[in-house]
Amino acid sequence: MIYFISLDDGTYAMKKVIIQTEEQLEMVKQEIRVSSLFSHPNLLPLLDHAIIPVKLCAGLKHMHSFDPPYAHNDVKPGNVLITHKKGQPPLAILMDFGSARPARKEIRSRSEALQLQEWASEHCSAPFRAPELWDCPSNADIDERTDIWSLGCTLYAIM
To answer: What would the CATH number be for the domain defined by 47-158?
Structure first.
């Protein structure tokens, strides 16, 4: 599937490929290798999007390094803005902090577990929600690792 994206510095094509076998993965890798060899105005360039996961991790690390650490709680593709300026690598920006809260929660009762599950159902997008927010144990320590789960789901979804 090909998407066309218009930015201030030009129009870009983004190709989404569904890979189900090792053979398909190798074909995509080969296409990337070949595409990266060329630089010509009549050939579509390959943008360096490998930096996107690194930038998202850096943003989350910053939030998780606060005292107390903060969790975004709603990491998903729709909350990632990707910008690209000519001559620079793409920049991935995590946005929408409406669900951000201090990350560490001590759950010590079934009532607290149910309250957290209810809060998560309202504030954390279901396809990207960490398992411990779906079925919270009655005696658990919940922390910023819920964002790491959501980040993994997000990266899987955008690849």
So the answer is: 1.10.510.10
